Amino acid sequence: MTILLDRIYHPSHRVTDLGEVERFFRTVFGRHSLPRHSLIMAGLVQQPPEFPADYCTFTPIADLFFDSLDPARYVWGGVQRYPSIESPHLDGYGWGVGEGIQEIWDRCRAGGIRLTDQWNQVVDSPVIPSASFKSAPLFWTLQEDTGLRYEFYPASSIGPYDHRSAPGWSLPPVSRHDPLAIVRTSHHTVATRDPVRALRLLVGILGGEIVDVRHNPVWGSESTFVRIGDDTHELAVPLDETSHLAADLARRDPLDSYYSIGFLVDDLDRVARTLERCGIPWLHRSETAIVSDPAQSIGVPWGFYTDAPIVHGDVSNS
Which CATH number fits the domain that encloses residue 244? Predict the structure, then answer.
């Protein structure tokens, strides 16, 4: 059976203040966020009345649909479903699956990768669990087996609130009004000390291709780049224990850390001017890359690059 991963489905960002997130994206990225409660009121999201409505906000950015979630608001049945946090950070991501979601489930189980339901309970069954908010299969890998908690959900069940679900959607050209001159997503960086663990899933199960292994001076890492469909995933092993990458990974060891999201941009000087105007310093600056200081950018070291690690094809969803 064919496995087709349609798109990266909302990287998950844990936060303590949804208002701060929305202000950041509006001021720095020039993007407006979509609070979940507003999507419910507009009829774009359907859910049981007892399910929380104000726990997250979504932000469309070029070919990315970004999800920020406040664990303190994610309370259902009298139980807070995710642990509280002290500072914002990326948490995990996954895929909208076009074809073969049962195949992914079966391959993971056969390969010794444990799988969980929405509440992070391990499910040892040939039957995929359903989402609590919709009659659709939904599952994650157990982070102890894959380093991160990777999500799988049918692309056909993703609602119209995701801008990429529109029939004939294609990546728009760069707007001259975009303060960051974003072309598209460049790559997702996962900090790890055990890349083989993640490769069991990315390559062994999902059929990704290792396209490069090299030193990455942006992070001071030995990085393995994996291409799956039209997306690139970087597994970065820190070589410098004094680096920010190593420090971020330390809070997750022995697990992996979803560390950074990179964007391909067509004007790095515009990026620099925007960050300076917003009072955001950078962790790294070169002729081809700028990485923001996460302490001043909602906990994320956003990367902006004029040369993506891998050349992508056209991005569309027709």
Answer: 3.10.180.10
Q: Percentage of residues in the chain with pLDDT exceeding 90?
A: 86
Q: Which of 9-23, 34-48, 183-197, 199-213 has the lowest mean pLDDT?
A: 34-48
Say if residues 129 and 102 touch (Cβ distance below 8 Å): no
Residues 11 and 141 in one domain: yes
Tens digits of per-residue pLDDT, 53-77? 999 999 999 999 999 999 999 998 8
Last residue of a domain, one of 165, 193, 219: 165
Tell which residue, 84, 89, 81, has the closest CA to residue 116.
81
DSSP 8-state secondary structure symbol assigned to residue 73: G
Indicate if the alpha-carbon torsion angle 22, 26, 32, 38 is positive or negative: positive
As for how many domains the chain has, the answer is 2
Tell me the HSE value of 94 on the side-chain side, using a 13 A CA sphere: 23
Full residue range of the structural domain in which residue 95 is found: 4-165
